[in-house]
Amino acid sequence: MPAQVSSLLGNAPSLLDSQVTSQVRNHIGYLTLDRPQGLNTLTLAMVRSLQGILDAWALDSHIQAVVLRGKGDKAFCAGGDIRALYDSHLQGGSQHVNFFQEEYALDLTLHHYRKPVLCVMHGYTLGGGMGLAQGCDLRIVTDSSRLGMPEVAIGYFPDVGASYFLPRIPGELGIYLGVSGVQIEAADALYCGLADWYLPQHQLEMLEDRLDRINWSDMPLKDLQNVLSKLGVQALPDAPLDRLRPAIDHFFSQPNVGSMIEQLHQVTVANSHKWADGIASLMETRSPLAMAVTLEMLRRGRGLSIEGCFDMEQHLGQQWFEHGDLIEGIRALLVDKDKLPKWRHRGMAELKPEQVQRFFAGL
Q: Which CATH number fits domain 3-148+197-229: 3.40.50.150, 3.90.226.10, 3.30.70.260, 3.30.1450.10?
């Protein structure tokens, strides 16, 4: 898309997809996910819209920075529209394949974007929403923020760059978040380094007002940081994960998921037994295959570049619809809603290491 198209995208809804709107004010391009009734979950058309607009703005000298946000109070983005991907697979279509390829390309664009991108992660920021946010330079959380990579709950693995950003969280916190699929709030997001600034929800309007009045220098990222420093903070007290860190580092450094669950049930570390027992019980409801592949993927990701991580996730994803638990997870949780998924393996004891390694063969 040529740079001049950005003038068409400036102060009117995007011409590419009505569920992504764009606007330019004070040299800032605002991109808004406009599907609040669906918690701003991503469709293939939305991914293509975002990519097209970002490509145009990257070449537009009028644009100094980008703000990425979601419409409504409930979510920035609660992930991808996985029901549509489920239907595509069962009908023999290609949308589910194209979606992941183009979503990964979009996320990689954000990781390498030539202009600063500020993301407001209010409400639910899950899965594909995290993929967007973690590629941004400035990530804001609020009172309502709920962040997570919950894919193992539906028989999938955390993707969209999770094999890069989760293993780089200190200690075993990223392994914990990916293998268990739990969600965290603002204090923990800052503690983990998955967010940079906290602003109370009611100050988001003030933030927009301040952005409208920036006098831009030749360092736009610093200009944005100066605005945030007057409104927000970069740490919050009493982050739950801070207190749980010794236990998490112990349990989630175990060699495999089966050992993690066993130790969580049986061993007490730093008065954490009630929490640990609950996490073990939660993990016993997840897909054994998804958790085991996730653990292997995250540990491999520690030594890979961002491009290498996306390549690994793409390699896994190409096999997963046929050989993973995703279709059954979507059926149980979103289609039939019986919440009784019949995973390929009834427990970790049934899953053999070679069944996990098979997904990584040929990588």
A: 3.90.226.10
Tokens of 20: 């992504």
Strands (E), 79-238: 117-121, 124-126, 138-141, 146-148, 183-184, 197-198
Rounded to whole angstroms, the Cα distance separating 1 from 59 reads 10
Confidence (pLDDT) at 1: 32
With a cut of 70, say whether residue 10 has pLDDT above it: no
User: How many angstroms separate the Cα of 213 from the Cα of each of 57, 137, 361?
Assistant: 20, 20, 53
Check residue 11 and give its pLDDT.
42
pLDDT tens track for 20-44: 999 999 999 999 999 999 999 999 9
DSSP-based three-state secondary structure for 75: strand
Classify the C-alpha dihedral 217-220-222-225 as positive or negative.
positive
Average pLDDT, the chain: 93
How far is it, in rounded angstroms, from Cα 247 to Cα 269?
Answer: 5
